[in-house]
Amino acid sequence: FCGGSSHGVCSLKKNKAPSCECHEKWTGPHCMNPEGYDDIIWEPRETWGDLGFWGPSFGQGMGIGLIVCALIGTLLAAPVVLKMGRRRMEGYRSVEYEPEV
Fold first, then answer.
1. Which end of the chain is more exposed for a tag (fewer CB within 10 A), N or C?
2. 31-52 burial by CB neighbour count: b if 16+ within 10 A, else e?
3. Closest C-alpha among 25, 31, 40, 26 to residue 11
4. DSSP letter, residue 10
5. Going by DSSP bridges, is the β-strand pair 8-11/19-22 parallel, antiparallel, or unpaired?
6. Are 44 and 20 in contact (CB under 8 A)?
7. What is the pLDDT of residue 87?
8. What is the dihedral of CA 41, 45, 51, 55, to 10 degrees?
9. What is the DSSP letter of 27?
10. Structure pTM?
11. Could you report the per-residue pLDDT of 59-92, keeping only the tens digit for each?
């Protein structure tokens, strides 16, 4: 019942239910399964690619560098553009402005 003499032997110890003691390289309740491991990754780690998104390449840092430069450029240009728009809305005229006569 314990996998035969090649897999394991039955253990009949006092004060304990009968069980199997497996030989080397065998496992399981009846010593019928060889020890080993499953080399198939059944649940791989989730990535953005699973959702159909492939962002910039981070391998050489070029993609992240472009994103950082674009963000800094936007943050530097935004106040200038907004100030020009506000002046235009308020009817701002330069001090050097001379109306036509």
1. C
2. beeeeeeeeeeeeeeeeeeeee
3. 31
4. E
5. antiparallel
6. no
7. 81
8. -120
9. E
10. 0.34
11. 666 777 888 899 999 999 998 888 888 888 787 7
Structure tokens at 56: 């910039």
Q: How many residues appear in the chain?
A: 101
List the beta bridge partners of residue 19: 11
Residue 11 and residue 2: Cα distance in Å, rounded?
A: 9
Q: E strand or H helix at 26, and its extent?
A: strand 26-27
Per DSSP, the three-state class of 66 is helix
Q: What is the mean pLDDT of residues 21-45?
A: 86
Cα–Cα dist 89/61, whole Å? 42
